[in-house]
Amino acid sequence: MLNGKNILLGVTGGIAAYKTATLIRLFKKSGAHVKVIMTPEAKEFITPLTLSTLAENPVISSFTDEETGLWENHVEHALWADLFVVAPATANTIAKMTQGICDNFLMATYLSAKCPVYVCPAMDLDMYKHPTTQENLKQLVKNGNRVIDAAEGELASGLVGKGRMEEPENIFAFIENDLRSGLKLYGKKVLVTAGPTHEKIDAVRFIGNNSSGKMGFELAERAAALGADVCLVAGPVKLALNDQSIRRINIESANEMHQAVMQEQADADIIVMAAAVADYTPEEAFSHKLKKKEAELSIRLKPTQDILAALGRDKKNNQLLVGFALETDNELEHAKEKLAKKNLDFIVLNSLKDVGAGFDYDTNKITIIDRDNKTEEFELKSKSEVARDILNKIISLLG
Ligand code: CTP
């Protein structure tokens, strides 16, 4: 969620300032860019050198650059930020934030910021409980800031109660969840299948196809980036996922894919069958390697289960079912037949006649046909852009 985001971290003068070192590490590890603004008092609690080293950016704390004497442009810093986090936020800074008091660089930057602001209060028990502080926290929320409430525990004064800054790991998780909750597929479970299946003939041979799995992987990544809880059932492919939140189930055969999908489908809101599932499998799979003989060899094949057709028959209320059709002739007609027969919400048609489309390419050219017979043809695009088009269609159907 935070990968590539610009985070401005405001550190104020409280003992919890030492915890911001860990918070910066978490932000940096997630791929965010971090700039730190310290109030003069914060420097009493942790050194700018520690925070600038971790953030890999100079710490700013005054309106003029100490070395060059040049003006530090607070507006520029504020507009650079995708997120503004004030941690720890002392009672004093919280009060200033509610009143718009602008007596230091942090406050000037706060007043210029247009991005979401997260405030992590940290102070002693009685300061925290004081009606003025409580009113100020409510006012901060009213003004559109997000308050990550103080935690209970031992305080620097020796008192025990509410007031200590929330742990960096929890602040990080709060921000991630908050960003995720604003995404279009937040709260949805998406089940995606990808790749080919391998139907075993003997210990070393199988019947397979050329599916690379790229389309299904792009769909899974894109759905996760839109906030979905994604489960990817993947056939034998040489692909890795970037998004570690995606749950990946590796399978080999059509039968294993059928079992995995059936286990995952009941609570799925959206199912996208992008896998190229084998239609036939050997009646008998030999556990040893078959030896070469002079005579002809026949392998009897039996049909596999049509997973998508089974999902269509047992479709849950409000479940959205998407299939793929890879065709070589009478493409639209065949795709429409599959759409109806498998009870889909829409089908994604690939024609092998289109150059650059289908198995193993990084590009694809699709036509989407929905159950109202609405047909949309798309240009040849990268599979990542095609995934975006497919998910846009899903989002439009979710309303
Ligand atoms: N599919 C499936 N289970 C199978 C075969 C296919 O779930 N045993 C799914 C695919 O994942 C795809 C859709 O059904 O989303 C259509 O697959 P496709 O191979 O194009 O069509 P088939 O139904 O197998 O028909 P045919 O091979 O005759 O074109």
Characteristic key phrases:
elongated; Rossmann fold; 399 residues; binds cytidine-5'-triphosphate; 5-stranded parallel sheet; 21 strands; 8-stranded mixed sheet
Secondary structure: elements and pairs:
Blueprint: E1 6-11, H1 20-29, E2 33-38, H2 48-55, H3 74-80, E3 83-89, H4 91-99, H5 105-112, E4 117-121, H6 125-129, H7 131-142, E5 146-147, E6 151-154, E7 160-164, H8 168-181, E8 189-194, E9 199-200, E10 206-207, H9 214-225, E11 229-234, E12 247-250, H10 254-265, E13 270-273, E14 280-282, E15 301-303, H11 307-313, E16 320-327, H12 331-341, E17 346-351, E18 363-364, E19 366-370, E20 375-377, E21 381-382, H13 383-398
Parallel strand pairs: 1-2, 1-3, 3-4, 4-5, 8-11, 8-13, 11-12, 13-16, 16-17
Antiparallel strand pairs: 6-7, 9-10, 14-15, 17-19, 18-21, 19-20
The structure holds cytidine-5'-triphosphate.
